[in-house]
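S1.2 Input.
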Amino acid sequence: MQLSVIIVNYNVVHFLEQALLSVRRASVGMQVETWVVDNNSVDNSVQMVREKFPEVKVIANKHNPGFSVANNQAIRESWGKYVLLLNPDTVVEEDTFQKCFDFAEAHPDLGGLGVKMIDGGGNFLPESKRGFPSPWVAFCKTFGLSKIFPRSPKFNRYHLGYLDKDKNHEIDVLAGAFMWMRRTTLDKVGLLDETFFMYGEDIDLSYRIVKGGYKNYYFSDTTIIHYKGESTKKGSLNYVKVFYQAMIIFAKKHFTGDGARMFVWMLQFAIYFRAALTVVSNFFRAAWLPLVEGAVMVLGLHFIKNFWAENYYSNPDYYDESFYYVNLPLYLVFWLGGIYFSGGYDEKFRLRRVVRGILWGTLVLAAVYGFLPLNYRPSRAIILLGALFALTASTGLRTFFYFLKYKNLNVGQASASNIIIVGSTAESERVQHLLAKAQVQKNYIGTVAAGETEDKKTFLGSFSQLEEAVRIYDINEIIFCSKDVSAQKITAKMTRLGPAVDYKILPEESLSIIGSSSKNTSGELYTINIRFNIARPLQRRNKRLFDLISALVLLLTFPLNFLFVKNKSGYLRNLFSVLFNQKTWVGYAHTQMTDRNLPEVKPAVLSPLDGIDLAHFEDTTVQRLNFLYAKDYDTGKDFEILRKGFKNCGKSLKA
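S1.3 Output.
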């Protein structure tokens, strides 16, 4: 056996399918065994592999033991002369395995090998080649010096930015997404250290390979796509914590004395430093638009207040200073809050949501106005003029930002991307059918042939004319049909065209079109899978708002509604649980057949079964009711179920 390919999977069934198709093609003409170790996925990954890839050996874990443990499980049972640890979100070229095998055979000192990786936008991934971490290397990475001086041997030893990415080199660290290793090397230096749950295990094993007297190589003669890249989850605090904790484990294991103490101290400091940066970055990424709109509204209200005081009351000092620290913040809360709860910050170019949010905010503000003390009720005119200004300013700002991004004023309209499909007419029609089934709005321009063609009626042009077609037709997105276009040709075109265009791939016989525009975004899918309304941010927010308001109303009217509930002590507990966001009023009914793929909701008091006058429900019926509740959810459903099943509010369901 020449090669054992090992893929550890966790809930990425669509990417796994594409990776296995590419592995199958790259294995032609070689002796290759493929292993998939599934860490208790809930997306039917194991079933997909067994049905579509019968040649693949599957280890289905009943829990998630981590990346290192899972890889070691398959390594111990595999037989290949070489072992390849491959991520499920990758695509290898048809000759990747043969080229790596030939290079390894020609270099008997080789212990491990990594390859050139690009992300889903065609960008080179710098983690394709890395140096060993040291206190100085970690310092430069933590404080951004490696990014400021990307080609410096002194400041960017982490990604070895001074080494030509298009040439082969000796390197220190292999990327965990593609680790090609000689089995005899693993026999000598040991397998992955299972102390590392995720991250750091590739650095540790690479370090032990070099310490064992072998060399690690960066091999530039083949390219793979790695959709998510190293930076995908850097926006999460969990990533920061797990990554740097892994570095601390590495430092304590391989460094001693003052050097180790300084390294560990610096890494601990880096955890807090990077966590703070992440929190600040995430805040401004989410809050920049409300902050800008709020600042503009403040300026507008300031001028409206002065204008009204001078022209209506003929007294510039008519309004008290409390206007600025009581009224003005109150107005902003209702207007910006109205936009937020209307979904205006989920889809910022949906002007209808902005208008709706400000109007609702103004109505609630007008109602609250009557309850304010007289000295805090400056003028209804300011509320009305302010609302008009807020409406104009918010829609104007969003129109301006839309123009900066898309260079047109079609704000609020569905901006369909111009796409071309690369492949045969049959696969092109399949792509169009899948896009229609998935309800994805795209402006289909035409199909480019997978090879050379003279058929100008059917095709926009030949594969060699793809760049020309992109330029002429102002293309935003290319969908490659992998049945007709080799991975080698796809990666070459992606690298050549670069990130100005989005790329997606339709794997052979798959029902999902897969892509990712950059290493900083998670994978994107066009799939015919059901889209659950309850998973939408707007609906989840509205569900929580409904729970909160209804709990407050029930609490205020407690002496009256208390009489209509069966289990009164349970009702009081449930009421406070909902109020403090530990439970929701309505959720899924418990059944042994409940679909684990349904979007998660909090433990519920009631379910779609409440209010239905039946003594017994079949499991299939319950499952169907749960499915429909999630798919077609709106707050009206929760209100109706709560109204009909109110007498049961003292019970609780299983999570």
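S1.4 Remarks. The chain has a mean pLDDT of 87.
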